[in-house]
Design goal:
The chain is of the alpha/beta class. The protein contains 20 helices and 13 strands. It folds into two domains: 204 residues, Rossmann fold; 154 residues, Glycogen Phosphorylase B (Rossmann fold, 3-Layer(aba) Sandwich). Strands 3-2-1-4-5-6-7 form a seven-stranded parallel β-sheet, with helices on both faces. Strands 10-9-8-11-12-13 form a six-stranded parallel β-sheet, with helices on both faces. The two termini are 35 Å apart.
Length: 389
Amino acid sequence: MSVLKILNVIGCRPNFIKIAPLIAEMNKHPEIDPFLVHTGQHYDEAMSDVFFRDLEIPQPDVCLNVGSGSNPGQMARMMQGLEAVLADINPDLVLVVGDVNSTTASSLTAVSLGYPVAHVEAGLRSFDREMPEEINRVVTDALSDFLFATETSAVENLLREGKPQERIFFVGNVMIDTLAMNTEKIARSTILQELGLSPHSYAVATLHRASNVDDPNALAQIAEALGDLQQHIRLVFPIHPRTALRLHSLRSWQQLASLPNILAVKPLGYLDFIKLTKESMFVLTDSGGVQEESTCLGVPCLTLRKNTERPVTITQGTNQLVGTKHEEILEKGLQILNGTICRGRIPEKWDGQASMRIVSVLLQESEMIKRMYGGVRERGICLDMLSRG
């Protein structure tokens, strides 16, 4: 039996959520030999370890431990580490997920060494080049040989950019697979009791994007809106480390934390966060993943951005774009509290089967994958001989 060797690369919280069902599905097939590399883009207990436990992700075969830093510096360390990993493992395919630095660094390294790349969550576009994630998405899709899309707008974007139709696969959303796989565990979470909350008595706020937290004006406007909203509903705010630093620098943290109806907590694990979201009145966020999760859960979502790369969460889901202006955020929040709620529906193929479709495609294309860059193994052997003198 010819085995397909797949190197899966992850680096931070959204990657962990997306890779969990893919690794689980790959492990069902003896004809696939999956390897897992963790770049270390997120590396502490709250942002990394807890997700491996919650989602039962196998321990990585390799950890690069690159840590934080500027985008170019971080990606350079990733690429250097991945070059050695690729030489050692010599996979048939490199699979990447999402739009973070680990995604792009892995794609660049793989392609420069002659390995084919599969991108899960391909084709999403905000059309805002000021977002680092948008650059990562565009670059990764340009380099990828297999493009797995979550929604039809992503397929249209890829076709418009000239990607061949036979390399684009509309498979659905692996984040929803993770939700489906963990329904019972989520139900058992005790986070509401731990925080002293009752269902539908609170809203959830998350904030981490550079366009918000690194812009003092945007951050101040959002903080002011949260301060006004908490006069009407309890706000639970799992605070990202980056956001905490920026709020401290603006001296807004003490003001927010002192308000009687804001409950600031440390970053939560997957199961607790989804339980918290599921039982909330609504969410305020700048996270793409939370837009998708809230749509699937039927929870109203106010996105604190001027654009989204996930338009299906607006056209079919529960999401509304509200920007970062204090008045608009407050107005939309109060509308929900007064009963104006977008119920939405679950988008096409968000049915918990995306990972199965992706793995099925890879198995069907396995022989072609092995032929795509047939010279890479020979080059690897020659380089190894040269390095030994």
